[in-house]
From TrEMBL:
The lineage of its organism: Bacteria, Pseudomonadati, Pseudomonadota, Alphaproteobacteria, Rhodobacterales. It is a multi-pass membrane protein. This is MFS transporter. SUPFAM superfamilies: MFS general substrate transporter. The keyword Cell cycle does not apply.
Amino acid sequence: MSDTQFPSPADQQKALWLSTLAFTLCFAVWTIFSIIGLAIRQELGLTEFQYGLLIATPILTGSLTRLILGVWTERYGGRIVFPLQMILTGAATWALTWAQSYGGFLLAALGVGLAGGSFIIGVAYVSKWFPAGRQGTALGIFGMGNVGAAVTKFLAPFVLVAWGWEAVAQIWAVGIALMGVMFFIVARDDPAFRARRAQGIAAPSLSQQFAPLKNLQVWRFALYYFFVFGGFVALALWLPHYLIDVYRTDVRVAGMAAAAFSLAASVFRAYGGVLSDRFGARTVMYWTFGFSAVLLFMLSYPPTDYVIHGKDGAITFSTEMGLPGFVITLFVLGFFMSLGKAAVYKHIPVYYPDHVGAVGGLVGMIGGLGGFILPIVFGALLDLTGVYTSCFALLFVIVVVSAGWMHLSVRAMERKAHGAALDRLPTFPELAEVHDPERTAMPRTLDDWRPEDPQFWAATGRRIARRNLWISIPALLLAFSVWMVWSMVVARLPAIGFQFSTGQLFWLAALPGLSGATLRIFYSFMVPIFGGRLWTTLATASLLLPALGIGYAVQNPQTPYLIFLALALLCGFGGGNFASSMANIAYFFPKAEKGNALALNAGLGNLGVSVMQFLVPLVVTAGVFGAMGGAPQPLADGGRLWMQNAGFVWVPFILVATAAAWLGMNDIADARASFREQAVIFTRKHNWLMCILYTGTFGSFIGYSAGFPLLTKLAFPEVNALQYVFLGPLVGALSRAGTGWISDRFGGGRVTFWTFAAMILATFGVISALGAGSFLAFFAAFMALFFLTGVGNASTFQMIPAIMGREIPRLMPELDAAARRRQSERESAAIIAFTSAIAAYGAFFIPKAYGTSIAMTGSPTGALWAFLGFYVICLGITWAIYTRRGGVLHDLEGGRAAPAAPQTA
């Protein structure tokens, strides 16, 4: 952009005000549920949680789409992306009027949420029209489009009362669609896009656009925006409901009062841009956080009655904020939040002028997610505490954390740049030249990393690599523990008063597997983008959400089932961590030690399942955390359980592991992976065949681990098996680590064939034991299954490098020997990562298959017969494709031992 000739002031103003008008209409549509949601809630009889989820759903779509819309705007230009987004939003908004059920409204609300993605399109488009010295003011004016929330709150209540909520949806839909058409006709491509197209310069690649996202500074900006924008959206949605319940106003008064907050939090954004240009964005952020903390403390103080025992008797008085004071305080809070929104986006084009779309998209996405997450949390806090002002208390905590992080980061940055003398200065020089906007390097980054150099490896490499490995292992062990913790929790929920059906319980056991397997696909690409140190820290810290959530949810038998479903999905964070952890550790070790390192990381990480199944039954029987952990749940037989400890027990370990990852791990500067280079595996048939085989081994291991406790409890209720079901995952993890040499000696294909044959027999043994009602036979057969899955995990992954070593010369004969070796290694690594993601779906399908079989036949044996049939298919594939005479691996394994390969899970 530095070489771009800026257009005339008239063209600049035209682009700015056209974008601002479009963003205003988009924001009006995005917050439409704050008004029509009240009517829909009454019409459908929704609970607090259902209502919170409904009004927050559009915020989810608008948030998640911001990152990709920002990237598309950089690539295709705002003149194309902006109109397309508005027209699609109009269609989705009109579709609201066709919904007939709660699920239909949620589906339509996802489409309405596209309106929220307009913000990053406008930021990427408008910023290109102005020089750096005026971008704060320009983006502040554009950000005034947040006033669309006030427009909806001013006008929609009157349309709703006059013609019904359907008229509101239809009028808003037509308005935004017409705006999309007008924008396409009137707007022009931004100067940077025109210059790039005129010079024939290709659009930046995804890796180039995402490169700055590994900088922790970007995530700090995202937290600021989580409060100033996410908090604004959440309150804009929540306030009408709050005002009606707390102050007993009607919908029109509630809409007007909430609109006052939305107005203040929107129109002053332009002033925030002016102040940021004049005094600096950092100074404005100090003002925002300081005043917001004071105002939120006032708002979070609940109505309270006091009794003071004086010398002449009791002195009583009470404190309560009246409606006028509440509205005024909210207005002032909105004013400072609007200044902060402008200040955050003043930072981005200054620090990252060539990455506004990606960086701004991420920051906007996190901020938007605040608007989705916070209303749900507001509702959950209200259900758990019964205190309406708990929503403001939560925002107060977020402000304090944000302000503290900003202040410490600023001081550390300036001390590093200018020395300790700055500690004596009463103020900080605003935006001092202490940070190079072009640098995205993180602290503790290894710029020189040569593990294949024997001298470098012996002198420094081995020590650093092993430190990262031994920090990674406990973090991954905790991830597996949290991933599978529902398998133990759901078995005891009926005993502590939860009236869930068997099918609902199996859904809770299965959903972590579904989300964890899906997240593995995405987590595989995170380390090259963010760096192993930062991503391991974030991924480990994310485990706190399900751990704390489970601890609080199980204490109240009235907790809605939807909250349990959400927590089960969040446990999938643990499953996703495996892919990124393995990718990270693989970069640290030379080829000669890579297999052992990956085996240690994965094998000991898998032990988290066994550790969890051993530890949870112990900690739920005692008040480990005292009064802080909450009261126990009574049992019908007079006993007590502290089921919340199943979640709380991991919290201190997660905190320690998170701190260890941040303080002790490293990033590797040249650790890069191109998705385009790896995507060739999707054209390889052996990739898909190995997905089937690895699902039969690892998918069985993780699925049986998830479903074994509940299946045992249902099949043999008289046996207290939960105290030793941990032995199954333990046997599977240890056999996987200890039997790899068998595949090295006899060949992975041969071992896989005989493993599946043995698994068929073991599964038949389980079926027979269930029919005979013999727990000992059932347990023994399952231990055999777990042992065999571990053997198969090692053997299937031993096959992959051998297969690609044979296939690449045939598929790509034009490559020389060195190029064939590199291509084979690249594709082998990619197939290993992809198969591990696909196989992890076994954690979902196996428990769900049990539940379906029980619902349809009254017995889990139907599911077990299906598993046996699948193993027969795997056995046939292994023989027909790989081990028979003429198969891919027959000559190789018949003539000599198969080459060693890294082991993963």
